[in-house]
UniProtKB/TrEMBL annotation:
<dbReference type="Pfam" id="PF10531">
    <property type="entry name" value="SLBB"/>
</dbReference>
<dbReference type="Pfam" id="PF02563">
    <property type="entry name" value="Poly_export"/>
</dbReference>
<protein>
    <submittedName>
        <fullName>Polysaccharide export protein</fullName>
    </submittedName>
</protein>
<keyword id="KW-0732">Signal</keyword>
<dbReference type="InterPro" id="IPR049712">
    <property type="entry name" value="Poly_export"/>
</dbReference>
<dbReference type="InterPro" id="IPR019554">
    <property type="entry name" value="Soluble_ligand-bd"/>
</dbReference>
<feature type="domain" description="Soluble ligand binding">
    <location>
        <begin position="114"/>
        <end position="164"/>
    </location>
</feature>
<dbReference type="InterPro" id="IPR003715">
    <property type="entry name" value="Poly_export_N"/>
</dbReference>
<feature type="signal peptide">
    <location>
        <begin position="1"/>
        <end position="23"/>
    </location>
</feature>
<feature type="domain" description="Polysaccharide export protein N-terminal">
    <location>
        <begin position="35"/>
        <end position="108"/>
    </location>
</feature>
<dbReference type="GO" id="GO:0015159">
    <property type="term" value="F:polysaccharide transmembrane transporter activity"/>
</dbReference>
């Protein structure tokens, strides 16, 4: 009877500790995506240049459904595509009765924003710039509060259409669209 009570207490303590733990190891794909070409998403703005076609050269935003609206050819799918893929697709569509040999160039004009929340001075939405790290994003958001856990943060990232969350160090790089959550420290 006494050993059963000890076993029940041990199981209860273990279940309580497991329930308090919110740690999820960082998925392998989390860091692999950093070495891949940038893929467009809703909120990005791109600059499309069609050589010797001033009427087509402009900046275009990727809408919520993942498309850009381009003159003459209409909606062009952009979500999940690289700038080079968009160049090829637009050039192919322009060849179909509009231009003989279009020379199309696509570059990122503005990246979608990042979001910083939790134990920071001013949580909110911030502009992404290439080379942004977690530490720099926290500095932009007003720095850590006195209660912040400064060792690691949780990042939520969309990888190939799948939303993943992982715990990373503050020196890790960010990607456009990431959400950074700074946890409260225990002591």
């Amino acid at each position: 009877m006494k050993s059963t009570a000890h076993l029940l207490r041990a199981m209860l303590a273990l279940s309580l500790l497991t329930g308090c733990s919110s740690y999820h190891p960082t998925p392998a794909a989390f860091h692999e995506v950093l070495d891949q070409p940038y893929r467009l998403g809703a909120g990005d703005r791109i600059r499309i240049t069609v050589f010797e076609q001033d009427g087509l050269t402009n900046t275009y935003s990727v809408d919520q459904s993942g498309y850009i609206s381009f003159p003459l050819v209409g909606a062009v799918p952009a979500r999940g595509h690289t700038a080079q893929q968009i160049e090829k697709e637009i050039a192919d569509k322009l060849r179909q009765g509009y231009l003989r040999d279009p020379d199309v160039s696509v570059e990122i004009d503005r990246y979608r924003p990042i979001f910083v929340m939790g134990e920071v001075g001013a949580a909110g939405q911030y502009s992404y710039v290439p080379g942004l790290t977690v530490q720099k994003a926290i500095a932009i958001a007003g720095g850590f509060t006195p209660r912040a856990n400064q060792e690691s943060v949780d990042i939520t990232r969309d990888i190939n259409g799948k939303v993943m969350t992982g715990r990373v160090r503050t020196s890790d790089p960010l990607l456009p669209g990431d959400t950074v959550y700074v946890r409260e420290r225990l002591f």
